[in-house]
């Protein structure tokens, strides 16, 4: 064999090609020569999407009525399992797997120190809660993702399994749990203080004490949790009762589903100045102007280094965007026409309310995923461009289909004004009112400068755009534009616009 074929980088390329033909090919490669055997077997067992191959390594295991059992009561031969288990780095298992308790206990009692290379485990405990014990203590495990299930029938077993397993993971860095958690599991999470990343989607089973405990984790960098059920007063009281201390000292990313007031309470107590990303999934209840303003003022003071901010807020309603009494579009009612409570929109998020965020000069990405889209006027766009010049991505929401009950306020003129101020923008999603806009051809005459960084734009309009004039407008204003589209109802028009823009760019380059 040529010496080049034992260089690890080249060997891995060969194995990549082998995997294209299935795992059997890699098995045959492992038999080719001694130099390739271990690297090929390591690659073959590196990632398992099912733990069944591990069971097949133990002679005498059979499946009876869907349950894996030992064929005879003799002591099992685990030599093959011991040979291959250290090669496994990642395990994912979501299929139904039932192990007889006797078999599970025998294997679990023999695997101590067997899975020495395992770094990632992802399991659905509704189907395979007996898998964790046979994996043994995870001395090298860094990432654990468990679906505990919301099914009450497995509540006790899945929670006990999780508590026992978490207690033997000294190097765990990332923990993700979904389902219903017991009080005991909440307490177990609270003492796993070496974690760097936590995701807790536990519905109403997550308690305030756990959040307080997590806030003291010194190395925690990334946090996600759902807490729409937790009362702000309860959280504030518990924070006061534990006394002073540094909260979230290292946090860089926060993804939270809660009320605006609870998010504000959390940020008020935060000591990290490293917070880089906030994803705010606001409970589906209309928020008052005061609630939004309070939150944004807190953010202004507590998140000076924020780069990425997303608001995800949708209020369920059968009549989004209209007042059942007046029949007027929802954003045309004005301050003298309070929006009917019957349609679920007591207050909409208006762009003027976010003005405190303009103090966060490092913001690069803003997303408003709201229903209906945030109310933005031309003057808002101009101010946004001048106040946040570092923006590279702006998503002001999109109307997924034409709905006359919702009328955007921004016009093509506002888009032009914004482009003159926002010199770093690469991606833009914006609703535009074409009915009150100047014609694109007329606006072209007023252009003084172009915007050279924008690559992608999505424009939501109630009326279909004129493909020819819109293509000329966008190609002239954004000469580096690569992709333009709009709502699904205007698919044909935007296909024409996209084709025309390419033609205009091609002609200018020739």
TrEMBL record:
Upper classification of the organism: Eukaryota, Fungi, Dikarya, Basidiomycota, Agaricomycotina
SUPFAM superfamilies named in the record: RNI-like
Residue ranges occupied by any F-box domain in the UniProt entry: 8-48
Domain of life, per lineage: Eukaryota
Protein name per the record: F-box domain-containing protein
Pfam families hit by this protein: F-box-like
